[in-house]
Amino acid sequence: MNAFSPSPAPSNVSALLAEARDRMEQAGADSPWLTALVLLEHATGLGREDVLAHPDRILSPPELDQYQDLVDRRCAREPVAYILGYREFYGRRFAVTPATLIPRPETETLVHLALDRFRPLEPEESRGERAGVGSSRYAVLDVGTGCGAIVVSLLVQEPRLAAVGTDSAQDALAVARRNAESHGVLERLRLVGCHLTDAIAGRFPLVVANLPYVPSDQMDALDPEVAHHEPRHAIDGGPDGMSVIRAFLPALSQVLVPGGVALLEIGEGQAAELVERARDLFPEWTVGAERDEAGMDRFLVVERREG
């Protein structure tokens, strides 16, 4: 008897998509069919129309190896954004790595709010030492910039703006720099490695921040994509989720110009306590909360009194 058993013929696109969908569904990954399609496009370099129009196409060995590797990573619940190396945010593509938090759609509202609150600096405020950004008539400080999605989006939308972004993780700052360069705004962005605002001496009319706000005891209950793959320091906000934000609030007296506004993304159910805390710190300032598109109080708004 001939013991030789011929190797099975390589699977075509249709069979590969079906197999990947089934594997990811069993692994608990969301949107398994769409993800199978996106990963196949990424592995082959083909557009969606080409993939769907040629279901009998046979992948080359390198393409097949890469596709199987991508599917394996997704079955291990690695976020799609890390697998692809990018995430869409505010209509633009941003590079992301495991060193950075993946931008969320709800954070786009923070960009909207910030754009609505720009105001020109007074001439004496526009000097580099005061504003921290050279001679621009507008200035913003992004605290905990991560991949830079917020501040780069602002710079692209407002060509007169110059900005400073801080982060304690040098790897994250490298990603932010790459995103600023790819979107043509690097000359208007200064990136500073420090904890919160420790290395910032200037004052700004606008401060934005998306700091950690998930309670520590909820971290392990998050989806594996978040709990096991995204940087914990960018998510874990301490016992009640508000430790980092509370630690940051007093610094607003040092980084906001009179009449300036700070916008902070916060977690569900945190608005009342953080509004009270900010009012205790700054009784003469205006403090409130703005809702996200789901109707939740998602953003803490702190406005320094003029004069």
Write structural notes for this entry.
The protein is an alpha/beta fold and 307 residues long. It starts with 12 loop residues before the first helix and ends with a strand. Helix content is 37%, strand content 18%. It folds into 2 domains: 64 residues, Orthogonal Bundle (Helicase, Ruva Protein, domain 3); 189 residues, 3-Layer(aba) Sandwich (Rossmann fold), CATH 3.40.50.150. Helix 1 packs parallel to helix 4, helix 2 packs antiparallel against helix 4 and helix 6 crosses helix 8.
- Order of SSEs, N→C? HHHHHEEHHEHEHEEHHHEHEE
Instruction: Give the N-terminus to C-terminus distance in angstroms.
Output: 96 Å
From the helix content, strand content and strand pairing, which structural class follows? alpha/beta
- Work out the count of structural domains: 2
Overall shape = elongated
As a percent range, the share of helical residues equals 25-40%
Poorly predicted ranges: 1-7, 126-137
Strand order of the largest sheet: 5-4-3-6-7-9-8
The total beta strand count reads 9
Radius of gyration: 23 Å
What does the secondary structure layout of this molecule look like, with pairings?
Layout: H1 13-27, H2 32-44, H3 48-53, H4 61-75, H5 80-84, E1 86-89, E2 92-95, H6 108-116, H7 128-131, E3 138-143, H8 149-157, E4 161-167, H9 170-182, E5 189-193, E6 204-209, H10 224-227, H11 243-248, H12 252-255, E7 256-265, H13 271-281, E8 286-291, E9 297-303
Parallel strand pairs: 3-4, 3-6, 4-5, 6-7
Antiparallel strand pairs: 1-2, 7-9, 8-9
Helix pairs in contact: 1-2, 1-4, 2-4, 6-8
